[in-house]
Write the structure tokens for this entry.
Amino acid sequence: MRVFRGDAAEGPKVVYIAGNLDEKASFAQLRSEIAGDAEVVLDLGNLERMNSAGVRNWISFARDIPNDMRVVLVRCPVFFVRQISMVSRFLGGTEVGSLYLPFYCEACDDTDEALYDAAGLSVPLDLREVTCACGEPMAFDEIEENYLRFLKRQSASE
């Protein structure tokens, strides 16, 4: 896992996380990078994969976020969102700002992802149409209630 700070002239600090969340991922640099900030945006758009050790390490990191710190996760990849919805403690002291939704094209068997703001989502989904490269509309490729289960928990904690 690689951690690097973005250049934010205004607003909260942006920290980018890239690579793999696995048994080799160290959260020490990330903890150090966000220490003392009131609000931080963690951009997860460059994460590549996560295994069970990464899930365990992430839960430990998220659980230890101080109550007076706001940590917003943006560009959450599909594999990350699946964990958020399956593991009740996965978000810990964080919240989802934006996430990728998976789509499937029945016409050509292609898949794609589109980025959405979490605040604008609810079940049942009412999404803008996503069009495949072949020109056909794409369908949401998950069970809405399962994939977006975390929205209920997140809105209850706000």
Summary: The longest strand covers residues 39-50. The radius of gyration is 16 Å. The chain is about 25% helix and 30% strand.
